[in-house]
Write a structure and sequence with these properties.
- This protein is mainly beta and about 240 residues long.
- It has two domains: about 120 residues, no CATH class; about 100 residues, no CATH class.
- The chain is about 0% helix and about 60% strand.
- The protein is built from no helices and 18 strands.
- The strands form three sheets. Strands 1, 2, 3, 4, 5, 6, 7, 8 and 9 form a nine-stranded mixed sheet that branches. Strands 10-13-12-17-16 form a five-stranded antiparallel sheet, with no helix packed on it. Strands 14-11-18-15 form a four-stranded antiparallel sheet, with no helix packed on it.
- A hairpin with an 8-residue loop joins strand 16 and strand 17.
């Protein structure tokens, strides 16, 4: 820990710097275009965090208290183009994204966290990359199948960021960090034109299945609660 006081362009003075212990999250997905890094620490006053890949360094300012810090990530903060990046607080701490990652700063992000009293601060850095779909295949829960006129898919999982899915037949790929709980089909999505294709639950149909996309549906979960949430998503179709 370095104790030299460093001048700051924001009118504050850093009393110390400290490297924060970081580890992979349960929904680690290193090639997704959706990423999340979460920092938890007891903070009173002002602390700045610099994120470089999976490295997190804290600058603790004079008069501030900082203890018990840890960070988890679903992927390293990438060195690439970003479509969007934001910092949010879960709880009373105030958070501000001071600097977005870019080529000129070596793709580092800087986040400022402030607490009036010594409380747990829980901060999330969320991003979407300017890259193509890069999905991970999900495991289907065993279930009975039929050949009815109407088909059904049910997906239940834990979300802490946006996730996009591609569904073809009974194969589902997910681009984005989340923890799957169940995935069931009554039948594969048929390779034919459908008279009905509907969704149930808080999910968006980005592209319905059709001949031009090889009968692949693209759906996307948005507006996930900051603390994360379980969601049930259903698709229904009719031949």
């Amino acid at each position: 820990m370095a104790l030299a006081a460093l001048p700051s362009p924001f009118g504050l003075y850093a009393a110390a710097t400290e490297t924060v212990l970081s580890a992979r999250a349960a929904d680690y997905q290193p090639t997704s275009r959706f990423g999340r890094l979460e920092i938890r620490a007891e903070i009173e006053g002002t602390v700045d965090f610099t994120i470089d890949g999976t490295s997190v360094v804290a600058e603790v300012y004079t008069g501030s208290k900082f203890t018990g810090a840890a960070a988890t990530y679903t992927e390293a903060l990438p060195h690439t183009m970003y479509r969007g990046i934001k910092a949010i607080s879960i709880g009373a701490a105030k958070v501000k994204l001071l600097e977005e990652p870019n080529r000129l700063n070596g793709y580092k992000a800087r986040v400022r966290v402030s607490n009036k009293q010594l409380h747990l601060a829980n901060v999330r850095l969320l991003w979407e990359l300017d890259t193509h779909f890069n999905g991970t295949r999900l495991v289907t829960t065993p279930s009975e199948r039929d050949n009815a006129l109407i088909g059904h898919m049910e997906l239940v999982g834990r979300f802490a960021n946006e996730v996009e899915f591609k569904v073809r037949g009974t194969e589902v790929q997910a681009d984005g960090p989340f923890v799957l709980q169940t995935l069931r089909f009554t039948q594969p999505i048929p390779e034919q034109l459908l008279t009905k294709f509907e969704k149930h639950g808080d999910v968006e149909i980005v592209e319905p299945p059709g001949t031009e996309n090889h009968h692949t549906a693209t759906i996307r979960v948005r507006k996930v609660k900051p603390e994360g949430e379980d969601r049930k998503i259903e698709l229904e179709w009719k031949r």
